User: Fold this.
Amino acid sequence: MNKAERTSAKTAREKIKAQQAAARARDKRKRITTYVTAGAVAVAAVGLGWWYAASSSRSEEAAGALAPITVQADGSVMMAKQGVTAPVVDIYEDFQCPACKELERVSGQTFKNLAAEGKAKVVYHPITIFSQEPTKSNSVRAGGAARCIADGKQWMAFHELLFQNQPSETEAGFTPDQLKSWGKQAGVSAPDFDQCVTTGKNANAQLSYSKKIMDAQKLNHTPTVKLDGKEIDNSALFSPQELRQAITGAAK
Assistant:
């Protein structure tokens, strides 16, 4: 190989190396682009998942005045516009139950709005599901005190205050003095309310009703919410958006 040939071969090898280097650079850029694109999709998916979770679990705002509320003879409380008989949403709750407190915080307004919109008949069933102390006595005192209120709007205001001020499961709470104070805060006007609370007048009625309801409905946990007799799954129960869809869907 003469000098000219050696120079030509060297130039050819350098061109090949340059081409290979360029190809590797292009491959690297493609991989980076792929990774970035995949990462962007992943981030977008996570973002959409977060947005959906946040939007579906966001509590509703009060849409207007409450539907008429009727305290019934057995201690249950019905909230519905005149003439609305279905679908029926039965809420079985215990004022001492932490999960019931969370349900009221997250989805309580959804139940109220649906009743106000004439899209459901909502029935509250305050029961005592606890069998051990101090939770049992706490629950009985709270449930019994709620039974001292005959006015529907006052009952609902008291209902909200009980959950807002729920005591620890390890401490005696819902004392008569506290209950009377919250009654005043809720605007309870019944002249015998304080005496009813102090004497525990409705304790036996609370326990009897609780046993009757738990046996009839086969309840083993609270909250339990039934839509036309069928229990609503927790995944929808604690997601106001899904809860609304489930209840309005039953009316179609």
